[in-house]
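User: Run a structure prediction on this.
Assistant: Running it now.
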Amino acid sequence: MSQRCYYEVLGVEKTADGETIKRSFRKMALKYHPDRNPDDPDAAEKFKECAEAYEVLHDAEKRQRYDRYGHAGVNGNGQHFSSNSDIFSHFSDIFGDLFGFSGMGGMGGGRNRPRAGADLRYNLEITFLQAAKGAEVKIKIPRQVLCPECEGSGAAPGASPAACPDCRGTGQVVRSQGFFQLQMPCPRCHGQGRVITNPCPRCRGAGEVEQVRELAVNIPAGVDSGNRLRLRGEGEMGLNGGPPGDLFVVLQVQADKNFERRGQDLILHREITFVQAALGARLELPTLDEPVSFEVPKGTQSGQVFRISGAGLPYPGRGRKGDLLVELGVLTPTGLNAEQEKLLREFERLENKKPLNKAKKVIKKMGSAMWL
């Protein structure tokens, strides 16, 4: 019987990288697992075919020969599996990971290997000014540390942990799943190979206790909500001498009463009177530093925006700043007294006397007449 193309067997393109080929093999292994297909007599053969295809394609040298010469290039060099157990043994690293257990290596192998501690997250709310100028903020973090009483052994002073009777100190037990034999951490000792018969009174056999640690967090100027600061080595402690995890501080910046933020630019809304807009005025505006004097140009319109360069927020880690955008709104006067109303009427009369305004009225009348 002719052999199918190995790329076709795994459902991948010839340009697929190693990780894609591995993922596809894992998917096919689950699809054709004989225990999951008891009514399909061809499942075991397809399972074997997938294993043989992967055995060639995951090996760079064999894959090169296969791409050049086809099946003839790997005949006698590829792996021929005699049984499903043989396949599992050959790819124990993949199948162990697939089923969530350790592979079929030596009993207890790796149970005491160093493991990095877990990372921690801390949500920190800061003021707008702290975000704008930078600050040092103290925080308190509860985390697990080695018990000082038993030095992490979990046993009472003078006592020692005993070998686990279920796994005989190996930390691993073997379970059968169909035709697979799976090696997994011992459920009694959690893979440690030992049990505490006389626990430490302080940590109650856990080997660790909670400790609150005060840390100083340096906040760079210009940060925003959602920014994360990483404090290396300030997470949970590692296991078996492994390195500690990291602490990630996630920032939440409070809103400011004066400024609206748009990236590193600041927006300042100010209202001016009708007279100030018409005649111009001098305003004193707040900034992140000292107040500044700002000249309102004559004839300013409501909603007009003016830019003050470099008066915004710093870009973290850079030498420049955003801008301050000043948006002016013109207030319409209300509650006029008789004299004020008289003056505005006179202003309107004088406006209408302007030659340009007269010309506009003539043009408007001419336009109306043309439609009669």
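The chain has ten helices and 15 strands.
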